[in-house]
Amino acid sequence: MGNVEQTTATPGPALEWVPDARELADLELLLSGAFAPLTGFLGSADAASVIENGRLADGTPWPDPVTLMLPHDHPVSPGDELTLRDPEGAAVAVMNVTERTADGLVAGPVTSLGAPEHGPFARLRRPPAQVRAELGERPVLAVTMRGPLDDLDEITATARELDAAILLLPLAFGEGGPAVVRAALKARDRLPSGTVVVVAPLAPREPEIDLELREHVAAAYGAAEHLAGPEPVTLPGPPHRRGLVVFFTGLSGSGKSTIARGLHDALLERGTRTVTYLDGDVVRRLLSAGLTFSRQDRDLNIRRIGFVAAEVARHGGLAICAPIAPFAATRDEVRHMAEEVGADFLLVHVATPLAECERRDRKGLYAKARAGLIPEFTGISSPYEEPDDADLTLDTTGITVEHGVERVLDLLIAGGRLR
């Protein structure tokens, strides 16, 4: 792994680094205890030992190096404390650096600076010790997932044979992570009562190593038996060539239509994708003419929007939608419509607070709703179910339209959906 720099210099100033996606996923598993007995990123001796014979330097079996690499010009040295941050700048952990090699490998134990507070399904990212305590002494059947499960009967039969609790472990990593978690939640509803879902962000490796790491993580969660679910279905073509639905949801007055129109204009200026904007008011006047604002008709309106958007995306187009879409189940239906035709789906939650939306009230709708003149008005007399699976959450309070549009463009570029 290269020559090791040995130094006894006093610790330098505060240092920081943003690991890549795989390193961040490994970091989360280290901090949660799912990678026990590891407590930090491996050094050169451990990494070389794992590569050679599948064991740590002390002889502990381990299938894969868990390492952190820094560029050559990063000033960190042994004895330093390195703050590790997520891509948004939030401090995730502190690493006590014990080794720095010439080729950039940095090793040392890590200490958590707090559990993640955001991101899709953050509430399901739970440490093994907590889950083991919840499941108690009963045997556990752990099922690791990288895609939808194709045989729930086998899982049910195995659990009954073992008299075991079922633990679904969606290995949520990268852009497809939320879809795997959603598949686990849907499977849970069809499995025996008491089935538990816990997210484990294990990055994929080579098939044999991947299976071994699945076994290790399952064991950390107390599994007496482990089943590995099937591999995910790969969508055809690179992201910038696949169809895409960008679906904005939020309260009336949140700014979602304004940002959506700005995104539409920005994409037309770039000219690299075929873009269709499905404006909510226009759809109501034409495609959904005659529908009321009852829950049933509002759901039907969203389904119609989703159907048209999926048809645009089916042929490689990019569809932008900006309805209120207050109900999670209906939003999930639209996501399924897009993914079913081989397209991608991005959910943007414009999470501007109700008070700010009501302060704007350009159409006077909130005032009428408060006066009882508009029944079933979202946020006042009808609920809005905030998404927990949004790809981007955006509060437009105090920001410019341009800034909001840039946030969405950054999301498209980061996912390779826009060149």
Chart the SSEs and their pairings.
Elements: E1 4-5, E2 15-17, H1 21-32, E3 40-41, H2 44-53, E4 68-69, E5 81-85, E6 91-96, E7 99-101, E8 105-112, H3 128-135, E9 140-145, H4 152-162, E10 165-170, H5 177-188, E11 196-197, H6 207-220, E12 223-228, E13 244-249, H7 256-270, E14 275-278, H8 280-285, H9 295-314, E15 318-321, H10 328-340, E16 344-350, H11 354-360, H12 365-370, E17 392-394, H13 401-414
Parallel strand pairs: 2-5, 9-10, 9-12, 10-11, 13-15, 13-16, 14-15, 16-17
Antiparallel strand pairs: 1-7, 3-8, 4-8, 5-6, 6-8, 7-8
Helix pairs in contact: 7-13, 9-10
Sum up the structure in keywords.
13 helices, alpha/beta, single chain, 8-stranded mixed β-sheet, 419 residues, globular, 5-stranded parallel β-sheet
Walk me through what this model shows.
The protein is an alpha/beta fold and 419 residues long. Helices cover 35% and strands 18% of the residues. It contains 13 helices and 17 strands. Strands 1, 2, 3, 4, 5, 6, 7 and 8 form an 8-stranded mixed sheet that branches. Helix 5 (177-188) links the parallel strand 10 and strand 11 (196-197). The longest helix is centred in the C-terminal third of the chain and has 20 residues, at 295-314. The protein starts with a strand and ends in a 5-residue tail after the last helix. This is Adenylyl-sulfate kinase. Residues 242-395 form the APS kinase domain. It catalyses: adenosine 5'-phosphosulfate + ATP = 3'-phosphoadenylyl sulfate + ADP + H(+).
